[in-house]
UniProtKB/TrEMBL annotation:
The chain crosses the membrane at residues 345-368. Coiled coil: none annotated. Pfam families: PAN_4. Residues 45-83, 159-200, 261-302 form the Apple domain. Keywords: Membrane, Transmembrane, Transmembrane helix. This is Apple domain-containing protein. It comes from Lophium mytilinum.
Amino acid sequence: TFIDPIDSLDLQARDSPCPNSYESHNGLNFTMYCNQNNPWNDAQGPVQTDTMEICMELCSRYWGPTGEGCFGVVWNTGNSCWLRNSSTSTQGLYPEAGTHSALVPHAELKSVNTDCPFDNLSIQTVRNVENFTIHCDQVIGGFDACFDEYDVSGCYQGPYEGFWHADSLQECMEICADSHPLCQGVSWNPSQTIGFANCWPKTGWNNLQPATANMLIGVLHSAALTSIEPVNTTCPADKSYDTQGKTFSINCAQLNTGTNITSIHRANITACVDACAKSDKDCVGVVFDSTMAAGFQNCYLQNTTSVISSNANTTFALLSGTPLPTSNPTNTTVPTSSSKASSKAWIAGPVIGGVVAIGLIAGGIFWWRRRKARPVSGTTATGYKGAPGYGYSYAPAP
């Protein structure tokens, strides 16, 4: 079987098997060498992918067992994909029709300052309301998940399960704050020893371990979410709210599964509605999740409506005069982008559920909708193991 194609790339890839240039969804740049082979120096291979773009996406997310990431790929029109290690270079290139190579400039995988950027056990505030405790030279074992934002290039298992790249621990914590479901910690690898995908959001953090025990993972620093400013969970008694010259109906314990424009954090339903009223994106309603179970960005601005359902943990507000459909909703689509900056969050109705209490929580939250990890042809789902002392698990998501 083949690895699942990335839908947004499929059509363009078939028109151009070897693109002129490529930047992966998490920001890794490739230099292209079309109709040229670059043999040897395997990091892993081969696996089967429908397109060269998917092959490069795997490279951008690869964490190898030898303590380095992926530095290039070779892909042919027979759909075979090879990943290259740090020894690869242009010296071995030779012409071969139907075989295409791509190399990652070494500067893309260069280590930044590996010193812990904050004092150990200091508290750092993100988005003005999330407090993270810094754990220098520590790594959070386990608690990995297929976060909704990964859908921009797919959720995979094995050595491709990571996604995000961050140039700083601060940026990694901000990625955590934007993640759905709720992210409760991060581990960040400034040396990029584990590959370009060096920022790992976590759904919990009570498995902190020393990160210096094994050189294959290099230097890691972690941050654990230890408190969030309280959110108002009370639904207003007045079911009509006027703001910015617009009137919205407030519907307690209800959910609209319409299309989301974006998600932001707000402390109460009226502040969430205010954001919709000020939006220039044709916002007609919001879903407000006071539990934040689905993510810190708990105010979902929507530009379409769908069938309304009951949900004890959410409040739905609708702009007056907006029609409601009478038929069953279609699946909500998620926009895609090849830009690393597109770290917007999206939510569908089934995501929200349960009650979450943040304070000094260390455990994971597991009642959200989870996507099944995608196997890759040519590898085994459980054939890759985390470096000793890290405790990372490559077990497929249910």
